[in-house]
Amino acid sequence: MIDQLYRKAVLTVSGQKQIESLVRSRGWSVAQRFVAGESAQTAIAAVGELAADGILSNLDLLGEFVASPEKANEFAGQVLHLLDAARAEGIKPYVSVKLSSIGQGQTVDGQDLGLTNARRIIGKAKEYGGFVCLDMEDHPRVDQTLEQFRVLVGEFGAQHVGTVLQSYLYRAEADRASLDDLRPNLRIVKGAYLEPESVAMPVKADVDANYRKLVYAHLKAGNYVNVATHDETIIADVQHFVLAHGISKDAFEFQMLYGIRRDLQKELAAQGYRVRAYIPYGRDWYAYFSRRIAERPANVMFVLRGMLKG
Ligand SMILES: Cc1cc2nc3c(=O)[nH]c(=O)nc-3n(C[C@H](O)[C@H](O)[C@H](O)COP(=O)(O)OP(=O)(O)OC[C@H]3O[C@@H](n4cnc5c(N)ncnc54)[C@H](O)[C@@H]3O)c2cc1C
Question: Which residues belong to any copy of the Proline dehydrogenase domain (predicted)?
Answer without folding.
Answer: 45-303
